[in-house]
């Protein structure tokens, strides 16, 4: 992988991790469309580590929220009536929302890694993401604020996050859709989606570091990794800011249209 290729893929990751159009799907399809081929042992590690770059964007953007949630949860969780504090409840909800993705990731690890090498699977998964968002906009009540989130909402949204382990199923698209199905307002669903990305991405990043140490000729791969990481972090931060503003005024349906058009065009032309 060259520096230029890493730059392009980092840009793609930063733009698509938080926009509900599937970063993993675009990271599979971009090399496919440009006829780029990479060593198999590098592909999955690079994809996960540039996602860690966008994780840094989430942490920076939501630093105040994350700090108050983590501090309250760790210091007050076992205290009497601690659950009355919203920050403590939110910490518990983030833990609940993470469990389904962790369990599904352990069970389907081999299948997920294999899917990253299958552009055809990715295209159909993009269509599934489009369908999820259209259904969420059609059947979601969109009336519950962020502070109205409950434990059952967190579990259901966590199950939707588990779907996004596979390339083409957008993590933000599936989790925001899960939030809309549970009646959350769009900005509230997006905010919880971004916050719940933190523990999952931390876990995935840790596993990727272990896999990185096994990559042959690791020294020549570090420069592209660094370029992809930094690019994804900077562009990801800007994407979060833009999407939260967008969702206050417009539905997810616009992203569904994009996914349908792109998927059908690639299926027909390739």
Structure characterization notes:
The chain has one domain. The chain contains twelve helices and no strands. The protein has helices spanning 3-16, 23-34, 40-61, 63-76, 86-107, 109-115, 119-139, 151-163, 171-181, 186-212, 219-246, 253-269. Helix 1 runs parallel beside helix 11, helix 3 crosses helix 11 (219-246) and helix 7 runs parallel beside helix 9 (171-181). The mean pLDDT is 85.
Uncertain segments of ≥5 residues (pLDDT<50)?
Answer: none
Task: Give helix and strand order, one letter per element, not per position.
Answer: HHHHHHHHHHHH
Helix fraction, binned, reads: over 70%
Mean of residue pLDDT?
85
Sheet-strand content, in percent, reads under 5%
Q: What is the number of beta strands?
A: 0
Overall structural class, as computed from helix and strand content, comes to: mainly alpha
Any idea what the shape is? Answer: globular
Number of domains: 1
For the biggest sheet, the summary is: none
Query: How many angstroms does the end-to-end distance come to?
Result: 23 Å
Structure annotation, total helices:
12
Radius of gyration: 18 Å
Quaternary organization: single chain
Entry summary:
The protein has 270 residues and is an all-alpha fold.
Attribute tags:
single chain, 270 residues, mainly alpha, 12 helices, 0% strand, globular
Give the topology, please.
Blueprint: H1 3-16, H2 23-34, H3 40-61, H4 63-76, H5 86-107, H6 109-115, H7 119-139, H8 151-163, H9 171-181, H10 186-212, H11 219-246, H12 253-269
Helix pairs in contact: 1-2, 1-3, 1-11, 2-7, 3-10, 3-11, 4-5, 5-8, 5-10, 7-9, 7-12, 8-9, 9-10, 10-11
């Amino acid at each position: 992988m060259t520096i230029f290729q890493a730059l392009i893929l980092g840009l793609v990751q930063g733009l698509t991790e938080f926009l509900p159009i599937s970063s993993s799907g675009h990271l599979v399809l971009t090399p496919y469309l440009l006829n780029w081929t990479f060593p198999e042992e590098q592909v999955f590690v690079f994809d996960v580590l540039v996602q860690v770059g966008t994780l840094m964007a989430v942490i920076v953007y939501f630093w105040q929220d994350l700090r108050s949630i983590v501090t309250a949860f760790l210091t007050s969780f076992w205290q009497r009536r601690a659950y009355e504090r919203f920050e403590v409840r939110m910490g518990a909800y983030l833990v609940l929302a993470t469990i389904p993705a962790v369990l599904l990731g352990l069970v389907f690890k081999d299948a997920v890694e294999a899917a990253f090498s299958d552009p055809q699977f990715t295209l159909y998964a993009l269509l599934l993401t489009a369908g999820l968002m259209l259904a969420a906009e059609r059947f979601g009540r969109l009336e519950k604020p962020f502070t109205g989130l409950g434990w059952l909402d967190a579990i259901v949204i966590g199950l939707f996050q588990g779907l996004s382990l596979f390339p083409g199923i957008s993590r933000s698209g599936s989790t925001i859709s899960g939030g809309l199905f549970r009646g959350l307002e769009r900005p509230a669903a997006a905010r919880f989606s971004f916050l719940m990305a933190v523990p999952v991405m931390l876990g995935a990043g840790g596993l990727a570091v272990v896999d990185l140490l096994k990559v042959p000729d690791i020294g020549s791969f570090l420069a592209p990794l660094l370029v992809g990481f930094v690019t994804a972090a900077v562009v990801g931060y800007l994407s979060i800011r833009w999407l939260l503003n967008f969702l206050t005024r417009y539905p997810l349906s616009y992203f569904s249209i994009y996914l349908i058009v792109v998927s059908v065009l690639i299926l027909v032309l390739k």
